[in-house]
Specification:
mainly alpha
Length: 129
C-alpha cells in the first residue's frame, strides 16, 4: 500500500495549487477582458477576411473575447493578424472594396453626406492599416 502514499502526496500538491491556479485564471480573465474592449474599439468596423469572419471578429465584446481566447490557444492567430494588416490596395487587388482612411477627411464639409449616401455611416467597412 506504499503506492497510495505517493499518490496521496501528488493529490495533496494538486489540491494545494488550486488557489494559485485561480489567481492565474483571474489575471488571464482580466487581460482578455481589457484586450477585448481594446479590440472592439480598434477593429469593430474592419473589413472581414479569410479568417477574420463571422466566427472570429471584434464586432462586440463577446465575439472579441472568444476571438482572443481562440488566439491565446494558438488557433489561427497569425491568419487573423494578416487579415487585419491588409490595406485598401490589398482588398482592391483581391477584387473587394473597403473604405480607406482618406475618405474620412474632416476638411470637406460634404463628407458626411457622401458617406451617408454610400451607407458608410450606418454600416462602416473600414480598412485596417
Amino acid at each position: 500500500f506504499r503506492f497510495f502514499e505517493g499518490l496521496n502526496k501528488i493529490f495533496m500538491a494538486l489540491i494545494l495549487s488550486i488557489p494559485k491556479l485561480a489567481n492565474v485564471c483571474g489575471i488571464l480573465l482580466l487581460l482578455l477582458t481589457l484586450f477585448s474592449i481594446l479590440g472592439v474599439s480598434l477593429f469593430s468596423t474592419s473589413h472581414p477576411g479569410e479568417t477574420f469572419d463571422e466566427h472570429g471578429n471584434f464586432k462586440n465584446f463577446v465575439s472579441a473575447f472568444i476571438t482572443l481566447f481562440r488566439a491565446s490557444t494558438g488557433e489561427a492567430w497569425n491568419y487573423i493578424m494578416h487579415d487585419l494588416s491588409k490595406t485598401a490596395e490589398d482588398f482592391w487587388h483581391e477584387g473587394d472594396w473597403c473604405a480607406p482612411d482618406e475618405l474620412f477627411e474632416p476638411e470637406d464639409p460634404d463628407v458626411w453626406t457622401i458617406l451617408n449616401d454610400k451607407c458608410l455611416i450606418e454600416n462602416p467597412i473600414s480598412c485596417t492599416p
